[in-house]
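Incident log, structure service

09:12 report received: a user says their structure output differs between two submissions of the same chain.
09:20 pulled the input from the user's history:
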Amino acid sequence: MKSLKTILLLMLLPLFAAGNAQHPLPPKYEYRAVWLTAIENLDWPKTPALTPLEVENQKHSLTAILDTLQAMNVNTVLLQTRVRGDLIYPSQIEPFSHLFTGVEGLSPGYDPLAFAIEECHRRGMQLHAWIVTMPLGKDEHVKMMGEKSLPRRNRSLCSHYDGAWYMEPGNPATSPYIVSIVREVVEKYDVDGIHLDYIRYPDRNNGYPDGAWYRRYGKGETLATWRRKNITRIVKDVYECVKQIKPWVRVSCATLGKYNHLTRYSSLGWDAYNVGFQEAQQWAREGIVDMIAPMLYFKGNNFYPFVRDWQENSYGRHIVPGIGAYRILPEYGGWESHEIVRQICTSRSAGTAGTAMFRVEHLFSCIRDVYTTIYRTPALVPPMDWYGTEPASPASLAVEYTANGVVLSWDAVETAANQPSMRYNIYCAEGESVDINNPENLLAYMLARTAFEWYPSLQRTFTVAVTAVDAYGVESEPVMQVVYNIK
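09:34 re-ran on a clean worker, output below:
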């Protein structure tokens, strides 16, 4: 049973969409991503679960969130999977996060990651496993974990700085450790992506204690160059691991919002290249990342020029600016929700592949403006066309008339060995043609089956089209059929 809040939101969304003809048609392809945060029980789970009833309530709270995201036409969920040296699934490497039961290492009796993947796919949404790479938690968190914490299990992989623990990028053994977690996720789960967060040195890192590692491995390089190479090595190792196992799984990285100083605009001392030691534009150039999500939680000239800089240096990979929806809170700036809309529209005009909202709770707080203006039609996740090739079109599209509507059916499109099955999109428009480039004509998308029941409310002649979509998001040419005067 849906929560009252979710029911009200789902009832209001169609009303919000009314009267939106003055807004430009949204693109057919774009990431509409949102970070779903587990740490501190912020988005999900809100409460721990120790009894069967509490477990069901915990599951229901996630499906309520996903129902609302689906109604908003969000298509990508970045689910926090590694939190702070602990995980939201049963692992051979790190303990189960206390967030689900209140006890570190104790399972709630189900697999939250597997459950979330199944529920996202049921709704035609992608799920990317959000891996927090470097931070292991503040002192109190590591103390709470006890013998299960990484600093207790393998101190050489860790550094202590400013009251918190971090994985040490300068230790060559750090990359294989992170890769082992990524490998476990990709091999065990049907994730659509791996999203690396905090893939950088600690914030405000003057005095960070990596001198011994630098002296050992720096080899005459400047400290900054050596640090950038350390981070790049981890990104590359993760990318190569994922592509070896499942090349269709997308690898993305969250970076600091500004890459570097621009000719006319300063980064104001807070950028990926000089502060986080993230050589992210080089990652795109080398092809060791599929998508970059710069966390551009600013506005005005601290936002717009830097979005364009990222896109102009994307080298054909996807740039998905992170939008600070949390900025609508008074304590974080008190932005009006139309500022969020403006930033998404600016990102579109710059040619980015979409946007990502931080975070779920705050996206819901500006749901009306976002839905009525920019998410009012469905959108498909952009294809990784540097990997995929256009699949064959579905064959033998048939229309069976029923008492109330029609049943569409078609033959499955075969895939290569060890590749996921095709998904299918259905388009529909009145008359004897349909434009599949118009997202308003998307009737259903990312279906895992080869039949679809359709009950139109109007007695009209329609044209339907079906396309196949491979695991890389590449879509086939359509096969079309006219459906005459449905009674």
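09:41 both user submissions now match this output. Likely a transient worker issue. Closing.
09:42 reviewer note: The two ends are 34 Å apart (CA to CA). Residues 15-21 have pLDDT under 50 and may be disordered.
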